[in-house]
Amino acid sequence: MKDQPNIRILLVDDEETLLEYLSKRLLKQGLTVKATFSGEQAIEAAKDEHFDVAVVDLKMPGMDGVETQKTLKETQPFLQCIVLTGHGSIETALESGQQEAFQYLLKPVDYDNLVTVIQEAYKKKMEIQETKFREQVEEIYRSGLGAHGIRKAISDLRKIYGIA
Amino acid sequence: MESHSSLQAELKRVKQELASHKIELHQTRGYLQCILQNSEDMIFATDVDGMLVSFSMGGGKALGYSWEDVAGMRVNDLAEDPVSFEQFMTTSSQDGSTVQLDLAFRHKEGGTVYCDVSMINLTNREGQRVGTVGVCRDITLWKKIQEDLVRIDRLAEIGRIAAGVAHEINNPLAVIGEASGWAGVVVGEAKGLSPEDRQELEKAAKEISHQTKRCRNITHQLLDFARDSAPAKTEFDVHDLLKQSISLLKPDLKHTPIEIDLKFMPEPLRISSDPRLLEQVFVNFITNAIYAVREKGKGRIEIRTAKTDSDVEITFKDNGIGIPAENQQKIFELFYSTKPPGKGTGLGLPICRNIVKKLGGIISFDSKPGVGTSFTVRIPVS
Fold it and tell me: Nearest CA to B133 among B146, B117, B148, B144?
């Protein structure tokens, strides 16, 4: 797994033991993992750190998965969310808002399957992000700013996109 | 002279009166006969000693006896408990009438017949009691339905509890699965273990993961079965849904050389139905087909679509092992499975049948052992 890009993952689930083991395995695979135990915690974390993929449990006390996902995407619009649902709640999830999760997975998830979906979600995130980034960079060039202005605008953009 | 003619007139009047009484009596008898022959209720009459003097056709239906069978019998001999029936008769004769619910009689062929019984004293013109009339309504079937309802209600409750338990078990199962996966990773890299110990531990960790997956399959399928939400209809293309279902099974298809042959109609097959439920059905049939051809060198699964005015037909045909004739009756039975333990739950096809039924369609199949099986799902366009 050496060649794999450094995917930054945000885990959101109130089942702390589950996240403990899930985090360990994902870390071992070379991913960057942040585990949070509620929607509120996740949103707090997303203020300081950029993530590529969020894995969100649908049913949590307090802020639920749909609401969490929606708020996360407001802060980080390119973030792809994988929503974990209990049985029979996929419909509820779909009805409760067209929040466009990258994918809904049935709990308990199969680890290998989860990793595959995370990688797919990451790919999609990068595609969308790069397209948008390129568009905006071109716009900056077209805007006729001076060299200094351009450098500053691009650096701002990088910050927005979380690209180091 | 005058008295003679008046006497004659009197005689004529009496004759007329008698004739009209005769007609009335005839009519009353006919009316009574009609009731006794046609009422579903068991109607009987006894003399003062409780000896049967009349027994209706309804009684024959309820207890299996004809009038010839019971003529000369005492009515309490028909009851399951003659002694308490006798007491009940006595009470009734003292009070003039009485009603007793849920009284047990014996059927001629054995078995118990339950009746609600009302009894009335039969009196002559002088007001003396000459016997008893009883009207008995057979409530055996009603009682059985009531008992069934209670049983069904309990089963439904057990179903709800089972679904709840399955749902709750999913969380610890997830933790077990992750913990065993992690244990496997740690053991794989641990230092200071003898090769044998490492092998044993890795095997154990893998086994825990494997069995966890098995439990997960069971809980998922059970919940699928227990879920009874109304289908949510949307419009979609059956071909897209089939392709999506196949792509869900990519991991299973990876390890075996199976050719999937799509014989779709050239135009899109748009229908209004529940895509989620239908996807479950498709995945199930494809999974079964993969399982059936897995042993063969050249596995082939053909998925064909067709359309009539009101229905669409999706056929999943494989060249697998087939279903032996003696098993074909059982494939839709709950928990019937020919897969080895851990591979099949015996819930797949019953669930499919429930879903397709719910969507207004039917499943048919055709199978020849050694040649293959084809399942056809037929569902309405909207």
Answer: B117
Which 3 state secondary structure label does DSSP give B141? helix
A-interface mutation test, from B160, B171, B178, most A Cβ less than 10 A away? B178
Domain residue spans of chain A: 8-127
Superfamily of domain A8-127: Response regulator (3.40.50.2300)
CB contact under 8 A, A21 and B173: no
Strand partners for A33: A9
Q: Using the 8-state DSSP alphabet, how is residue A99 labeled?
A: -
Nearest to B175 among A18, A106, A113 (CB): A18
List, for residues A4-53, the tens digit of each pLDDT value. 678 999 999 999 999 999 999 999 989 999 999 999 999 999 998 999 99
For range B17-46, the mean pLDDT: 92
- Backbone dihedral region for residue B19 (phi beyond 0: left; psi -120 to 50: alpha; all else: beta): alpha
How sure is the predictor about B342, in pLDDT bands with cuts at 50, 70 and 90?
A: low
8 A C-beta contact, residue B231 and residue B361: no
Confidence label for A107 from pLDDT (cuts 50, 70 and 90): confident
Q: What is the span of the domain harbouring residue B340?
A: 234-380
Contact A88 B223 (CB under 8 A): yes
Of B108 and B252, more confident: B108
A17 CB neighbours in chain B (<8 A) are 175, 179
For residue B223, the 8-state DSSP code is H
Q: Tell me how far apart the alpha carbons of residues A47 and B92 are, in angstroms, rounded to a whole number.
A: 88
Look at chain B and report how many structural domains it folds into: 4
Residues B368 and B276 in one domain: yes
Answer yes or no: do B229 and A91 touch at CB < 8 A. yes
Does residue B297 sit in the same domain as residue B342? yes
On whether ipTM exceeds 0.85, the answer is no
- B179: contact with A, CB 8 A cutoff: yes
Total-model pTM: 0.55
- Closest alpha carbon to B117 in B156, B150, B91, B155: B91
